[in-house]
Design brief:
Elements: E1 4-9, H1 17-29, E2 34-39, E3 58-62, H2 70-85, H3 91-101, H4 104-116, E4 121-125, H5 127-135, E5 144-148, H6 153-157, H7 166-177, E6 182-185, H8 188-198, E7 203-204, E8 223-227, H9 237-248, E9 255-259, H10 265-274, E10 281-284, H11 291-296, E11 299-302, H12 311-318, E12 323-326, H13 329-335, E13 340-342, H14 347-357, H15 362-373, H16 378-388
Parallel strand pairs: 1-2, 1-4, 2-3, 4-5, 5-6, 6-7, 8-9, 8-11, 9-10, 11-12, 12-13
Length: about 400
């Protein structure tokens, strides 16, 4: 019998790795199930050609939380601020924070929208929506609730996190995750952190290859490639541009293509202009045909400061590309000894790895890359999701 499955997402019709992976998993599950994507996107932005969502029979439900009164909104914000900064993270204060960070009006609205679908399984995409689902568990009947984290443990709960959770709020979020029927993380290295620090046992499901690979790289273009959203800090494109500037002082042949869109485009372009590298570094807009860039590149570079799962690594290897990566645990889990690793955040070390990569045995590494990428096929990963759904 077909399962009725709902993915609850902040957005599906915008550019991003989370959206792309969610789309691929949702599409794969439509073969034997009824799938809905509930999104907070503006309905006017619906574009099912994005991520080729039009290839599958998926229902879309657009939602928007009701407005809070000025008084209620003020009370919630004040308490949330005090809780984050001052209050001890006890069960009582955690419970009050659950109410202030996700007010009763929102909980009522979201549960009502989900109950309309009479779903068997509801998947909250990302940590915040996972926590929201946990808070409405008593309101959605017998539906199985699954949280799905798309960032590494350190990115969520580490001291230097950019996600405004950090170690102080870990007790609250872990308490929420434990209410769910299942919580999915992307890597075994993160699973170990949850077990070690919180005696919490999540399920590990790697992300799949989310595109049909294009032509295998010939390895003759002398092009480095990096793909990702242009946001502050995360993908480390500032580090990559700085490192390429050092590299370019003694190499006049190789170029760098960066493919992506986001709020920091002008910042990164200004850095390119600062070093007069306009003829060597090109920032290209997002495209649904990113395969062309992989096929034309010779070396892929992941300069990220953190990653939940480096999906672009799999995409690059599926095109036969050798890879330079920051020494993230997730990168090492995906590639093992295959990757050319530099110390995370170390510009000089990255510049050195760029230089070393121009001298590798391309054909040997290309064959190995294709072999590794096969482990992350959508068919294999989809079966893992079927098991827990």
């Amino acid at each position: 019998m077909k399962k009725r499955i709902c993915f609850v997402v902040d957005s599906i019709f915008t550019f991003g790795g989370v959206q792309r992976v969610t789309a691929e998993i949702a599409k794969s599950l439509t073969v034997d199930n009824s799938v809905c994507i509930m999104t907070f996107d503006n309905p006017n932005n619906k574009d099912t050609s994005m991520y080729k969502l039009d290839e599958a029979d998926i229902n879309y439900h657009f939602v928007k939380y009701p407005k809070l009164s000025v008084l209620k909104n003020t009370i919630c914000k004040v308490y949330s601020f005090i809780y984050k900064k001052i209050l001890p993270k006890t069960n009582v204060f955690n419970g009050l924070y659950a109410c202030s960070s996700f007010p009763s009006e929102y909980r009522k609205y979201l549960s009502e929208q989900l109950n309309k679908g009479d779903f068997d399984t509801i998947i909250g995409v990302h940590v915040f929506l996972s926590a929201r689902l946990a808070s409405i568990k008593p309101l959605v009947g017998d539906a199985k609730l699954i949280g799905w984290s798309h960032n590494s443990y350190d990115a969520i709960f580490g001291e230097a996190t950019k996600y405004f959770i950090g170690p102080k709020l870990a007790p609250f979020y872990l308490g929420q995750f434990k209410k769910l029927d299942q919580f999915v993380v992307l890597a075994h290295c993160d699973e170990k952190m949850y077990i070690k620090n919180h005696d919490f046992y999540p399920t590990v499901i790697h992300n799949p290859l989310t595109l049909i690979p294009g032509e295998k790289s010939k390895g003759t273009s002398k092009k480095f490639l990096a793909v990702g959203r242009l946001t502050h800090g995360h993908k480390g494109f500032d580090l990559l541009i700085e490192a390429f500037n050092i590299f370019s002082k003694h190499n006049k042949d190789w170029t760098l293509d960066i493919v992506g869109e986001g709020p920091e485009h002008d910042t990164f372009q200004s850095l390119v202009d600062k070093y007069n590298l306009q003829e060597r570094i090109t920032i290209h807009p997002f495209t649904n045909n990113v395969q062309n860039y992989y096929s034309e590149a010779q070396i892929y570079v992941l300069s990220s400061r953190w990653e939940g799962f480096g999906l672009v690594l799999v995409e690059a290897m599926a095109h036969g590309l050798p890879v330079i990566s920051s020494d993230l645990p997730t990168s090492k889990e995906i590639m093992g000894n295959f990757g050319h690793y530099f110390k995370n955040g170390d510009i000089a070390d990255l510049a050195l790895k760029l230089d070393e990569a121009t001298k590798i045995d391309f054909e040997k590494e290309s064959a190995e890359a294709l072999h590794i990428a096969d482990n992350f096929s959508i068919e294999k990963i989809s079966k893992e999701w079927e098991k827990i759904i």
